[in-house]
Specification:
The chain has helices at about 1-5, 10-65, 90-270, 305-315, and strands at about 280-285, 290-300, 335-340. The radius of gyration is 87 Å and the shape is rod-shaped. Helix 2 (about 10-65) packs across helix 3 and helix 3 (about 90-270) crosses helix 4 (about 305-315). The chain has 4 helices and 3 strands; from the N terminus they run αααββαβ.
């Protein structure tokens, strides 16, 4: 029995519910029957009481009536009112008949109640049968659902296992790819560092070679500068010597040229007095020796204006004057010393 209860808890619960419903209907029918009996007895007692209450007030009303007072004048006396009729009391036969009628109604009610209880019993049995079928169906549905849930759990577990395996495979693939990427990155970094080292070494070598070339270039420049300075110094010295020689030559040629001018002017001078003053004569001429301007600036000793004019006329008569031997010697404006002798 206990094993059956453990294996079929829903059927046991349904049976308990059905028996409880039947017990409730039995108790409820008994209580309804008892209340109906009490209601019949109460109706009989209330009828007697009502009849008694109806008769007594009327009799008391008839007995307590008094004649209305009238005035003292000749009138006809009022007609007396008829007394109320009292309903007759029920006879024992009537009471028995009423009791029999009530018992008959009670019997009918009991029969109807029994029919009702029988119908309720059939309904309860039908409900019990339906409940049992429903419980069995629910049990089958629960078993089916349990199997479906078990199958679903198994499928979910297999799916989770497959997902976990797939995820693990993807993770391994990802780790492998990451390792490859890291290895490639390390290789690229190493190659980059190697290239940078080579470039740095090359740059250092180029800088060293450039510095050496610059040093050599600077040395060559310094050497060239020293040689150029030496050459310029020698050339300057030569030029200085040449200028000095040329200046001496120009000076000598200038002295000779001016002396020639002075000699020609003395030859063109006409002496008109006994004055023999030595004068400084300013003269402006062309390259061909043509005199453009002449003026006696000053004289040593006494010199009259006529003497000075004679000297100026001598310069003009000597034009054209002797030409300068070179352009370096030639001067457009000169001052020469005029000496009579």
């Amino acid at each position: 029995m206990l094993a059956f209860l453990r294996h079929h808890p829903l059927a046991t619960l349904l049976a308990l519910i059905v028996h409880g419903v039947l017990l409730y209907f039995i108790v409820y029918g008994f209580l309804q029957h008892k209340e109906q009996m009490n209601d019949v007895l109460a109706e009989i007692s209330e009828a007697d009481l009502v009849q008694a209450d109806v008769v007594d007030p009327r009799v008391s009303q008839a007995l307590t009536q008094r004649p209305t007072p009238v005035e003292e004048k000749p009138v006809e006396p009022p007609k007396p009112e008829p007394l109320p009729t009292v309903p007759p009391q029920p006879s024992p036969e009537q009471l028995a008949k009423a009791e029999a009628e009530k018992q008959k109604q009670e019997a009918q009610k009991q029969q109807e109640e029994l029919k009702k209880q029988e119908a309720q019993k059939k309904q309860a049995e039908e409900a019990k049968r339906v409940a049992a079928e429903q419980a069995l169906a629910k049990e089958k549905e629960a078993e089916k659902q349990k199997q479906a849930e078990a199958l679903k759990k198994q499928q979910d577990a297999e799916k989770q296992k497959a997902d976990a395996a797939k995820k693990q495979q993807e993770e391994l693939k990802k780790q492998e790819e990451q390792k490859k990427q890291e290895a490639l990155k390390k290789q690229q970094e190493a190659e980059k560092q190697k290239q940078e080292a080579e470039l740095q070494k090359k740059a250092e070598q180029e800088a060293k070679e450039k510095a050496e070339a610059e040093r050599r270039k600077n040395e060559i420049k310094e050497q060239a500068k020293r040689e150029e300075a030496m050459r310029k110094a020698m050339q300057a010295e030569r030029e200085s010597e040449a200028k000095a020689a040329n200046a001496a030559l120009v000076k000598q040629e200038t002295s000779t040229w001016i002396s020639a001018i002075g000699a020609k002017v003395r030859r063109a001078w006409i002496k008109e007095s006994t004055e023999n003053a030595v004068c400084d004569v300013y003269m402006r001429q062309t390259r061909e020796g043509e005199v453009k301007e002449v003026r006696v600036k000053s004289c040593q000793g006494e010199a009259s204006e006529a003497y000075k004019r004679s000297v100026e006329l001598a310069v003009r008569r000597a034009s054209p004057l002797p030409r300068a031997p070179s352009d370096e010697v030639f001067k457009e404006e000169i001052i020469f010393i005029f000496k009579p002798q």
